[in-house]
Design goal:
The complex is a heterodimer of chains A (308) and B (372). By secondary structure, chain A is mainly alpha-helical. Chain A has helices at 6-34, 38-42, 54-64, 67-98, 104-114, 123-131, 135-144, 146-154, 168-176, 179-190, 194-202, 207-218, 220-235, 239-244, 253-260, 264-267, 274-304. In chain A, helix 1 (6-34) crosses helix 17. The chains are: A mainly alpha (308), B alpha+beta (372). Chain A binds chain B through residues 193, 195-196, 198-205, 209, 214, 217-218, 308, and chain B through 50-52, 71-73, 77-79, 81-89, 98-99, 102-103, 146, 150. Chain A: Belongs to the binding-protein-dependent transport system permease family.
Amino acid sequence: MIERTPILNIVTHTILFTGLAILVVPIYLVIVAASQTLPDVMAIPAKLLPGDQLIVNLKAAWVEAEFATKFTNTLILATGVVVGKLVLAALTAFGIVFFDHRLRMPIFWMVFITLMLPLEVRIVPTYAVAANALSPFQSILDVTGISWLINATTGVEVALNWNLLNSYTGLIMPLVATATGTFLYRQFFLTIPDELVEAAKMDGAGPLRFLREILIPLSVTNMAALATIMFVVGWNQYLWPLLIITDPAYGVAAVELSRLVPNMNTTGGDIPNWHWAMAGTLIVMLPPVAVVILMQRWFVRGLINTDK
Amino acid sequence: MAEISIRDVRKSYGKDEVVHGVDLAIYDGEFVVIIGPSGCGKSTLLRMIAGLEAISSGEIAIGGKVVNDLEPRERGCAMVFQNYALYPHMSVAGNIGYALKVARMKRAERDAKVAEVARSVGLDEFLDRKPGQLSGGQRQRVAMARAIIREPEVFLFDEPLSNLDAKLRVQMRHEIRRIHNRIGATSVFVTHDQHEGMTLADRMVIMNKGTIEQIGTPEEVYDHPASVYVAGFIGSPSMNFLAGTVEAGVAAIRLGNDGRIDIAAERAKALDGKLVQIGLRPENLSMVAPGAGAITGHFEFAEELGSGRLYHFQFEDLTLTVLSADKHSFQPGQEVGLTADPVHVHIFDGATGARLDTLEPMRRRASLEVAQ
């Protein structure tokens, strides 16, 4: 039963507005700070009304943080994550749902377990792999004695090396192979009636054709939802780029943002340029917000799954 | 030429066998209806012909070629599904032409063919619509068109009419028969509806619990049901069954305390003393004065059918129904004599339920002769 009384209405609305304030006030303060001069930002008591320096500060932050490069990099990262994820997750879910084979459940559980092992948990081994992506194979060769055999017979020392540090590949790959997308697809694929699969079989469509011409067009809304989520996730990446990127040419926006806020080490105790930092924050926030607004309709439809 | 021959086909899921050795031969161009209650294995059999279900043992050949290991697309079958199974994101034209697209037919040729087939089933105005914008009957037509366009040698129908309302069902039934007559492809139609079965079939296959009970023309199946099961399944209103003992001395079957159904003397002689089940169709029973009939029933109520009435009588602890064009007005509880023509008395073995009649062995033999 939903009760509608004036008191309850007031209480619920109070709660909702409090929540809204908690979300909106910080963003407002960012806008305020980003539009003032440095003395105004540092003034006590704080000035709570926007100033007139917004454009100036945005320009300064853009130049100071080299956002032109960083944005390109971040865009490549986010797009790479989105595309990689859409493709990989679709194929994995396709394999899990539509093929009746013995490895079906083991694979499903292996994918499932990765949910409990996000990048932050496995960051050290992932770094090790990124430093030399072929090291697992090297280990296999070493353990099985094959590298010794090759060395003994040909005199060639086997040392496989594929360094992914400071590269787009290294940035993107570890973020692609996660379970969320697979599950989203799986749940959708499970709602596809068996008869549709059989009709495609009768029409002579092979598995890949079925995936391409029937499943994918049907899961467009799901893909839009997944793409939105993954774009935001990719865009906001901080820890992983911070770890593997040392070359500024590959730096990403979120990491660069933290460098806009000077600390003792970088400025030797100068007053931090808070107005630029806040302007930078605004700039970095915009693309994910734009994507979410643009994709909103699809996004909701994809998650509630009613459009069939 | 696409005759289908099914030899000792079995299907099991794990240890559960659901189809127990089915033999069936379907002639080229024939319309065969497989009928039975849900869970009798009829759909499984159809899906094995289509190649959607693996065959556990036995052999299926289409047009003389064993298809056990062939993919569905290589078998030359087209199938109409119960829920139509249209591709929701494609237009009607896209749905109908998909098989041709997969087969890499040229665009122009394909469009021409789609238009032609769509016209033949009355869909030409709807080619650009999505399946979601069509009514049930129209979707059914799309499903049919999608099957027709492939010019299949074998047409498979998996209860295609069960999602339609009664009137549309009859219409589509006629449509299917017309299409069959025009195309002449061998057709296998699965249903649980005996009206569909009787009206559509050249021959009917009645299945029960994973085996075939009887194969025959609708007339054969109706007039000479091979078992109590078939007799009870086919015919509406359904047959009356009574248990009794054959007495050769009076050339009759004695029922309960004071009932007696006369049968031919030589039949009675052959079956003397045997415990039997007799089957009487409601239209073969007639009402006479009390005491004049073979048995005396107590009137319960009558159902008006328009063309006649269905009278319900109580006889001992059974309900007997009589179908008659005569309009009587009995009082509830009134005694009425019931009598049956000996020619129309179906006699079945009391223990096995098999027909005790010369026609009995035909149910299996007929199929095997063709298969060889």
